[in-house]
């Protein structure tokens, strides 16, 4: 599905990613585990075209992502929920969720169908649809960011540290939402970054360990 | 009483309309691109030169005088189409994310280039083309003569104000603009071509400035130095209203124009400094401007 080959990234002269390579498979959940500064966020940002790479190749199926600018990746079916949520404060929750649909010129019927699907999977979003994006709590914001990413995630869903800063009850709710999502959309490849491996042990198919920009360990099929 | 206030009001609002066009363009460009474009006033004077030249040419070929109205719009659109995308792509784009000093130096350099370019193309003579104003005639109220063209300016400014608000609140493009203003990077990740949004916003800004210049030509004419003079006034208006605030620019334009008109009527010696005295007073009390929002720290 998504193939990352020998990815090198430098930021202001410092090498952040060193030959990172791994594949995401359709229907599988891959967890990228590493400490702060290990390169997890940079990996996701590079896949989204937000960070320039100095080397390597990114392929989505047979599509070379280098041929598509950053803004074109949503249209290719890659959904992304950043670590710090990054909602548009002046938009309502529903407008935030719909933003990728407007940006990619999704047809009205399709837009509504996907919005309904997001609300089915994450029912808590429906009740806060009219609230301003700037007025939701951190945990709710993570849920909104997940819903927003789902609007376009036909092939790949990238979630950057979704559990970070969540209260235990919300973390449990989020994990349940991911399980529902996995069942409802079995074709999507998930890539989830996390600093604590135990949080995702029950949903990970593959685990990768990243340390100082290098993939150090790879675990196969989890239980 | 009415006869002494009404002329002041009409004069003030008509002046405000012209300042509003250029100031709202400046404030729109700032809110989207986060760049204070020192060359913005040049687009006002280029729009004025373009409209005057086109109008004079229409007169010289004996065209229907009513064509002088679309000529004002066409000249502004041409200036925007010619300068907007080109300058944003070739010059302004390279200053995004750079320090404010660099942005100001680059756009000041652009201002100097555009000023010389105008002298080369249009010469140093004043141009005056008042057909649109004379065609509309005057209205007498209580023995006082009012130019109907001034009323047209006020109506057009209101149309632009409402149109911009509708564009931002009700259209897909407006949503995308608002998203880019709030967070460029996440907008890109959600599928928005932010480069195109920047180019579009810059070109709209150029169009509004050029439209202001074109509409001013029948009343004031155009002469070298108009760009610099307008720029400083537009800065004052944008600062009073709060940079990035569309309604703020409209209200500030009315305040500045009223101060200017009152000075002309009652203390002519203060005519030039009146707008800046108002700016000083407002910024001393509210440094972010009347409608500006103080920047909050992002955690």
UniProtKB/TrEMBL annotation, chain A:
One of its GO terms (molecular function) is ATP binding. Coiled coil: none annotated. It holds the Pfam family ABC_tran. GO terms for biological process: L-amino acid transport. The keyword ATP-binding applies. It comes from the Bacteria. The keyword Transcription does not apply. SUPFAM superfamilies: P-loop containing nucleoside triphosphate hydrolases. Residues 2-222 form the ABC transporter domain. Keywords: Amino-acid transport, ATP-binding, Nucleotide-binding, Transport. Belongs to the ABC transporter superfamily. This is ATP-binding cassette domain-containing protein. It comes from Hwanghaeella grinnelliae. The lineage of its organism: Bacteria, Pseudomonadati, Pseudomonadota, Alphaproteobacteria, Rhodospirillales.
TrEMBL record, chain B:
Keywords: Amino-acid transport, Cell membrane, Membrane, Transmembrane, Transmembrane helix, Transport. One of its GO terms (cellular component) is plasma membrane. It is found in: Cell membrane. InterPro entries: ABC_transp_permease, BCAA_transport_permease. The chain crosses the membrane at residues 12-36, 43-60, 66-84, 96-114, 134-167, 197-216, 273-294. It holds the Pfam family BPD_transp_2. GO terms for biological process: amino acid transport. It is a multi-pass membrane protein. One of its GO terms (molecular function) is transmembrane transporter activity. Its main location: membrane. Belongs to the binding-protein-dependent transport system permease family. LivHM subfamily. This is Branched-chain amino acid ABC transporter permease. It comes from Hwanghaeella grinnelliae.
